[in-house]
Design brief:
Elements lengths: L10 H16 L18 E9 L3 E11 L5 E12 L7 H23 L6 E5 L2 H8 L7 H13 L5 E3 L7 H6 L3 H6 L1 H5 L47 H15 L13 H19 L1 H10 L14 E2 L5 E2 L11 H4 L2 E3 L4 H13 L5 H9 L2 E3 L2 H11 L1 H7 L12 H4 L7 E13 L8 E11 L5 E6 L4 H15 L4 E4 L3 H12 L1 H5 L4 H10 L2 E4 L9 H18 L4 E2 H16 L18 H5 L19 H23 L21 E4 L10 E10 L5 E7 L4 E5 L3 E3 L8 H8 L21
Parallel strand pairs: 1-4, 4-5, 8-9, 10-13, 10-15, 13-14
Antiparallel strand pairs: 1-2, 2-3, 6-7, 10-11, 11-12, 16-17, 16-20, 17-18, 18-19
Helix pairs in contact: 2-4, 8-9, 12-14, 17-18, 21-22
Length: 753
């Protein structure tokens, strides 16, 4: 109004305020009964609510109708609420919906407090749009309407709502306003409409209402999915089975009572079935060429079959025209049947040829197929067939070969000779108890210890391959060579038993008084390491030493049979020869007259050389002699670091990394002492990477056990192979083979290659 506090008000405002103030005084004459004629045992009590709205406000009023003992209705005003319309202009229909929501909340709360069943609650509005909204699903309406309709339907049932005319709606007085004099005298406000006193008139169900106001636009999306039916021959995995099954099906479809069928399938029937499948295959991939041949007798220039001059024979099969019409060969060879490359029928034809040719090679299969079919891209298909054939993969025996691993730290770290050693057995050899006649020979074995750092060799004669025999040899070895902290070996039963006995019986040996050996084993401990089963390349260091020792023995002993003492003497000489071999090439230093050998680290010089001059009469103090010995030792280790270690840099073989297998992949375990048909089928259970993160050992799950094998002993099967029952039985060899070499021992550690 743009006036100050001390300015007088306009006349119209003063008049309106005076009328309102005088009306407030008249409200003092209004009296409202506190009792609504209800008590606890009375059940014939009903709630009736009315809602209405205008552009100024929306309101709701609730009445209680109760019957007295004589059955006379008593209607009492229970409560009413009026709310001013929002400042933001909205439609009257939305305000009517807000009034209905206000009424639903009031009726719900009153019914709960007065314990009146919902079946005796009735709501009225004079807006048919609001009734249509309440009857419809909330998802049909816009967000404003949908939210309020959802709340109304939660509070009251749709059957509780009725339509009432505006003149009978007491809430219309509250929404539009009324003077105090009129309010006091209004029976519509205090008693409700007159028909409310009637018993059943208001209980009649109203007709349904519809509206498109505030309706959400429904977007209907239609998706067309064309399901292309696959040819029936794609359900088969072999050509022979496909022809026989489909031929029986054709017999059933073409069944005639007057025609007699044989118990077996004739060649004519099988050929007709094959022709039907070929035509279906050609119409799937060469449909455009077939249509052009039928219309114009020739294919388009852009066709990939243009150079083959194709034509349709009398059976409507697409064949090669070619240039061999004058050749004196069969018609099938001159005009072979055209087959596409990427088609299941073509794959079945190639597989069938592979089986008929007894798993023949690529060239044999190509020549055989070209006599009857002209297959687009034949060579890749043939190679793929051979590559995915389980039988061919098994008999070819192509194993994985990982890259040569890095040398372990025990091979390239200086240290005392034989502190870390590898051990292996060689033999058998023939031994005698003593010289002379009448003494039978018995089997003996050679136990070889090799230093992991200097390649020094120690040989012991062992009478048998038992754990006790090896432990005796091991005690002789550490008694002469000192304590051995780490020992590497393969998975021989005697090594496994010895490792277990040394570990389990440490406390017993401590109490037996053998302090020299027991203290070393118990206090410092000897840790045993096992290479993976069936992996001799992991122990190449001692395998090479065994080969060298055998070479000397075979040449010297020949067919002779030595006694235990003679064999011990001979092995000591062989040991001296092996320890005198150079471990690196002779350098260009004129002061180094001899190459570095393992014996230099054991006794300070090679064992198989000409004795040097005697310096017994040369006077040297004890300190000078000790300094000389230390200088010699340091010189040997310096040469070991500069000459020997550099010679280990090169990878003489296995320079490339092979394909890494995956967990869950099917493999065949290669066994050198079994024919390929009896190799076991397994699944990769776990990959065991080495220090360089390259996988060289895997755990395999067989039919009845879990094995550990190097990957150069497994053959990977094709990843997309699907083993049916007969192939699985062939791979597993009927489940009759026992698991070979199933000694899964300890952790895997990579030793010298």
């Amino acid at each position: 109004m743009s006036i100050e506090w001390d300015d007088p008000l306009p006349i119209n405002v003063i008049t309106e305020w005076s009328i309102y103030r005088n009306d407030l005084i008249k409200l003092q004459g209004i009296k409202i009964d506190r009792w609504i004629n209800t008590y606890q045992i009375r059940t014939n009590v009903e709630l009736h609510g009315f809602a209405d709205a205008s552009t100024a406000a929306y309101a709701a009023v609730v009445y209680v109708k109760a019957l007295d003992d004589d059955g006379n209705p008593k209607i009492t005003l229970l409560e009413s609420k009026t709310k001013v319309a929002p400042l933001k202009q909205i439609s009257v229909a939305r305000l009517e919906l807000c009034g209905a929501l206000l009424l639903a909340k009031m009726l719900y709360q009153a019914a709960i407090h007065l314990k009146i069943p919902m079946g005796q609650v009735f709501a009225y509005t004079d807006s048919t749009v609001t009734l249509a909204w309440i009857e419809g699903q909330p998802i049909k309406w816009q967000t404003f309407v949908a939210n309020r309709v959802t709340e109304i339907q939660t509070l009251l049932d749709n059957s509780a709502w009725r339509f009432v005319s505006s003149r009978d709606n007491p809430a219309d007085l509250a929404s539009r306003g009324i003077q105090a004099d009129d309010l006091v005298a209004s029976s519509l406000w205090w008693q409700g409409p007159t028909w409310l006193k009637e018993t059943h008139k208001y209980k009649q169900t109203n007709a349904s209402y519809t509206t498109t106001l505030e309706e959400r636009k429904q977007r209907v999306k239609t998706f067309l999915c064309e399901l292309e039916e696959k040819p029936i021959y794609e359900r088969f995995s072999t050509l022979n089975r496909m022809k026989r099954v489909l031929t029986y099906c054709r017999r059933f479809l073409l069944l005639k009572p007057e025609k007699q069928y044989t118990d077996y399938l004739s060649t004519k029937e099988l050929n007709e079935t094959m022709q039907m499948c070929i035509k279906l295959c050609q119409r799937q991939d060469f449909m455009e060429e077939i249509r052009d041949l039928k219309e114009s007798g020739m294919v388009k220039k852009r066709s990939k079959l243009k150079t083959l001059s194709p034509y349709l024979d009398e059976n409507q099969i697409l064949r090669v025209g070619g240039r061999l019409q004058g050749a004196t060969i069969g018609s099938e060879i001159k005009h072979p049947i055209l087959l596409p490359k990427h088609n299941h029928l073509t794959t079945l034809v190639v597989r069938d040829a592979h089986i008929k040719l007894l798993h023949g090679g690529n060239r044999l299969m190509t020549n055989f197929l070209q006599n009857q079919y002209w297959i687009i891209g034949l060579k890749p298909l043939v190679k793929k067939c051979v590559r995915e054939c389980v039988v061919c993969v098994r008999h070819k025996g192509m194993v994985l070969q990982p890259k040569m691993g890095e040398l372990p730290s025990v091979r390239i770290t200086p240290g005392r000779p034989f502190k870390t050693s590898g051990v292996d057995f060689a033999g058998p050899i023939q031994l005698r108890t003593s010289k002379g006649r009448g003494h039978k020979a018995f089997k003996g074995y050679i136990c070889l210890f090799i230093c992991m750092k200097t390649k020094a060799v120690h040989l012991e004669v062992v009478s048998d391959l038992t754990s006790k025999g090896f432990i005796a040899a091991f005690k002789r070895f550490i008694s002469r060579r000192g304590h051995c902290s780490d020992v590497w070996s393969d998975n021989g039963l005697n090594f496994v038993g010895a490792a277990k006995e040394l570990k389990d019986n440490a406390n017993i040996r401590c109490s037996s008084g053998m302090k020299d050996i027991v203290e070393l084993l118990a206090n410092e401990g000897t840790i045993w390491h096992f290479i993976p089963p069936r992996a001799p390349n992991f122990g190449g260091l001692w395998e090479a030493a065994v080969k060298s020792a055998k070479t000397h023995l075979v040449k010297v002993v020949g067919n002779s049979t030595l006694t235990f003492e003679e064999m011990t003497t001979l092995l000591s000489q062989v040991e001296a020869c092996l320890n005198s071999r150079p471990i690196c090439q002779l350098n260009d230093n004129p002061d180094d007259l001899f190459p570095l050998t393992p014996a230099h680290f054991l006794i300070g010089e090679a064992t198989m050389i000409i004795p040097e001059p005697d310096h017994e009469n040369t006077r040297l103090s004890a300190l000078d002699r000790w300094t000389l010995v230390q200088k010699m030792t340091q010189h040997f280790w310096k040469r070991w670091s500069t000459e020997y270690l550099q010679g280990l840099q090169r990878r003489q073989k296995w320079q490339k990394s092979s394909i890494s297998p995956d967990v869950g992949q099917l493999v065949i375990i290669k066994e050198n002492d079994l024919p390929p048909a009896k190799w076991l089928l397994a699944r990769i259970l776990e990959l065991i990477p080495g220090p360089d993160k390259a996988v060289r050992v895997v755990k395999l799950k067989c039919k009845s056990s879990i094995l550990t094998r190097p990957i150069n002993k497994i053959i990977l099967l094709p990843r997309d192979i699907k083993l049916h029952e007969d192939a699985h039985e062939y791979l597993m060899v009927g489940g009759k083979n026992k698991v070979l070499g199933g000694r899964n021992v300890g952790a895997v550690s990579a030793t010298a290659q």
